[in-house]
Structure formats: structure tokens, C-alpha cells
Amino acid sequence: MDIFHIEGPVRLSGSVSINGSKNASLPIMAATILAPGESSLKSVPHLSDISLCGQLLQQLGCKLTRGPDGDLCIDSTVIDNPVGDYEIVRRMRAGICILGPLLARCGRAEVSMPGGCAIGDRPVNLHIRGLQELGAQIHLKNGYIIAEAPNGLRGKDIFMGGPFGSTVLGTANVLMAATLAKGRTVIESAACEPEITDLANCLNKMGAKIKGIGSPRLIIEGVRQLQPVEFEVIPDRIEAGTFMAAAAITASELRLKNCRLDDMMAVIDRLRNIGVTVDAEGDGCLVTRTGPIRPADITTQPYPGFPTDLQAQFMALLSLTDGNSVIIEKVFPDRFMHVAELNRMAANLRKEGPVVIVAGVKKLIAAPVMASDLRASAALVLAGLAAEGTTIVSRVYHIDRGYEKIEEKLNPLGAKITRQSI
Ligand code: EPZ
Question: Could you tell me the pTM of the whole model?
Fold first, then answer.
């Protein structure tokens, strides 16, 4: 159980390279199940969630190695145990995205039903309904989803929308299953997140026939088989947004390399709105804040709206404006565990249902705080960079799930973060 000691306030400067996307890598790793043989994935980050996903694939029968240049090689020639174990899926909910590809490849899959987590209930009813529409028989036994399709899956028109809009991993699951279904599938209200676009591009490179990529209507002509692939995952837009917020909260100038601004329009819009400059430069951008920042309202939404995965970090940032901001969470209405922790650092946040009113304060003050989930812990690190004194963040394992050595990236830029193992 590591903890961070973060001395603040600091100014940052310099340049940082953004890693490959965690949330693109996870479903793409699962997609290799569909194509017997060895696939090679570039830019898959070294994160604990990626290792857990690797363990899940190994339990199925896959062989995983990291090549000399860091490529992740997955040999899925043999899949002889189509079971997604509770011990892994309970720790990494994205494990659910092996369900669709396993079912399509093996005609049967047993995957632990994920539980709730710090950001809410997180049901998987839309995943299950989508696979049932493709002809799977699904029931629940001892906490496991048992899915069967002994005679294969059949293409169908499927509406995937739910009470909070589209579902990212639900779309991934049904999309992957549909690539090997007989006939044509239409997924209406598909998630449009760049990570789903990346998955669809990877599947097409494997031989799938998917049209409408990037739109809410995906049209898939099923094929008999897919081939292993060499593929490079996109840069992580959430890591990039976190570093943009780091530049903004510390009134600094940071250069981000390997970052796709086109995937981040809503985030950049909010930054410009509060007085932060974001200029495209090379394969990334220059983020500069010179003066005070203004309050702003943020509503999280499915892509291309403002991402829920940056809500916590922007709450920390807006805590330091001169005025009131309103943050509305429309994807995970309970994703506010960071509110109480930021208030311990002298932020002035008031939660009313899925809304937080952020009354700006002149300064944040260091305190011992506890990370509750991945993005909430990133918000606490950002707050610690700007706060007066030494902030102690416990349960740092949450941040290691989604940020590769964040202190080793921030310290060369001027941060003073020490990791202590206790
Ligand atoms: C993905 O989770 C991401 N995870 C999350 O990132 C991200 O916050 C989320 O999408 C939204 O962008 C990965 O990609 C690994 P959803 P996912 O299904 O797919 C409801 C991070 O910090 N819903 O799009 O599980 C659900 O409760 C993580 O990196 C149903 O009602 O999210 C939520 O309100 C955390 N029924 C909304 O839809 C379902 O069957 C969107 O969830 C599925 C979802």
C-alpha cells in the first residue's frame, strides 16, 4: 500500500509524453481472443489494469509476452478455459469485455458478474441484452454470467442505448461478438468514444467488416474468421487531459507530446473558456496558463461530450477560480467520492444529487487524503501540486491502475512527489 507525499505549491515546466490509452488497450487485448494466433500490440501502457487483463487472458489459455520494444504479444492459438474469474473481474471491471469475444470464439463463456465500485452500481444489463439479441442464451449462476451459443451467433438490429446514454464496454462486447456472427448486425446508439473507434479499426485490420466507425450506428457484416494483427493503440486522452489540468492548476506551461487534440475538443473548450491556452504543436500541444482562471460549468456526457473520466480533475482545478462553477455528472451520477477529500484540502464543494457546486477558494491547503478510485486519486494529486504544504495521498494503488508512474512523469517537470511503501 504505497502513499504519496506531495509538496506544494509548485510550478511545472517542460514536456511530457502521453502513453497509449488504457481504455483502448483493454478491449483490444480482449479482441485478440477472436483471432487464433499471435497478435502484437504497440503502445499498451504498463499499468496494473493491463496486467490484470493479461492474467485474465492467460487463464483462458493465451500466452502473453512483452517484446524488446515494449510491444505486447498475445498468442491466442489455444483457448481452453473460457472462464473470466471473479478474483480478477472484481478488481478490474473491464474484464467483462472478454464475454463477447469468448462467446463468439468458443460458443460458450462464463464471466464473473462485476460488482459495484466506488463510482457507482455499474450494471451490465445492456451487455447481456445485446448478446441475447445476437442469439446467446444467458443465465446467472453463482455470481457468474453463463453465456451459450452452441450454434453460433446471428446478426440483428440492436438498440444499445440505456438510461445514461450509450455504453462503452457494452458496445465493445456486442461489436466484437457481431464480427463473427452470421449475417448483418446494426448497433444503434453505439458508443462513439475514440477507444471504440480504435477497437473497430483494429477489428477491421483483423479482417472484420465494420462500417459507420465513429458514429452511433455501427454496421457489421459477420465474417467466418479473423486473423491476428499488429496494431498500435491511440494515445490516452484522459492522461493528456490530466496533464493539461496539471498545467492549469499550477499556472504553468507544459508541452504534451503524443496527444490527439481532435479527441479532446470538449476538454479543450472548457480549458479555453476558463482562460487556459491550448495550442496545437507537432504531435501534441502547448498548454499555458499565465493569469487567473475563471469559473465554468461542466456537464459530463458520452463522447463527444466532456468525459466523466476528467470530472474529478477539473473539479480540483475549478476549486481555485474566483467564483462559482457547476459540475453535473450525467454518466455516473454517484461519481463524487473526491468531493469530501477535496473539501479536506479547503476546497468549497457542495454536492446536490448528481450536481456539485464549486465555490472558488483562494488557496488549497495540504491534508492527508484518501484515494477512492482512479480519477479521484488523480484529482487529489493535482490538488496536492497546488496546495500549500505536504499533501499525503493514501491508497495510491488506485492511481497506478491508470497512470504509468505518474510521479516519475511529474517530478522532472518540477513536482515534488515522493512514493513511500508502507
Ligand atoms: C468505460 O466504462 C470506461 N472504462 C470508464 O473509465 C469510463 O468512465 C466509462 O466508460 C464512461 O466513459 C473502460 O473503458 C475500461 P459505460 P464502462 O458502460 O464501459 C450505464 C476509468 O476511470 N450502464 O459506458 O463500464 C452505467 O451505469 C474508467 O478509466 C448501464 O446502465 O461504462 C453508466 O451510468 C472508469 N447498463 C453509463 O451506462 C449497462 O449495461 C455508462 O457506462 C452498462 C452501462
Answer: 0.98
Task: Confirm whether 117 is a catalytic residue.
Answer: yes
pLDDT tens sequence across 95-124: 999 999 999 999 999 999 987 678 888 899
375 Cα nearest atom in ligand 1: 22
The proportion of the chain whose per-residue pLDDT surpasses 90, expressed as a percent, equals 95
Contact 109, 89 (CB under 8 A): no
Nearest-CA residue for ligand 1 atom 35 is: 309
CA 418 to chain centre: 25
| 158, 134 contact by CB (below 8 A) | yes
Distances (CA, A) of 84 to 61, 104, 178, 395: 11, 15, 20, 26
Collect all residues with Cβ–Cβ distance below 8 Å to 212 and sequence separation of at least 6: 190, 218, 219
409 ligand 1 Cβ < 6 A:
no
**The pairing of beta strand 217-221 with beta strand 416-421:** unpaired
Task: Report yes or no: 256 and 16 within 8 Å, Cβ to Cβ.
Answer: yes
Phi, psi of 163 (to 5 degrees): -60, -25
Containing H/E element for 366? Answer: none
172 lines ligand 1 (CB under 6 A): no
- C-alpha 216/C-alpha 198 separation (Å) is 14
Measuring from atom 28 of ligand 1, which residue has the nearest CA? 309
Could you tell me which of 115, 109, 56 has the C-alpha nearest to residue 90? 115
Nearest to 312 by CA among 378, 369, 392: 378
- Per-residue model confidence as pLDDT tens digits over 230-277: 999 999 999 999 999 999 999 999 999 999 999 999 999 999 999 999
Main-chain dihedrals φ then ψ at residue 100, nearest 5 degrees: -65, -50
| Distance between first and last Cα of the chain | 6
Strand partners, 6: 391, 417
Low-confidence ranges of the chain (pLDDT < 70): 116
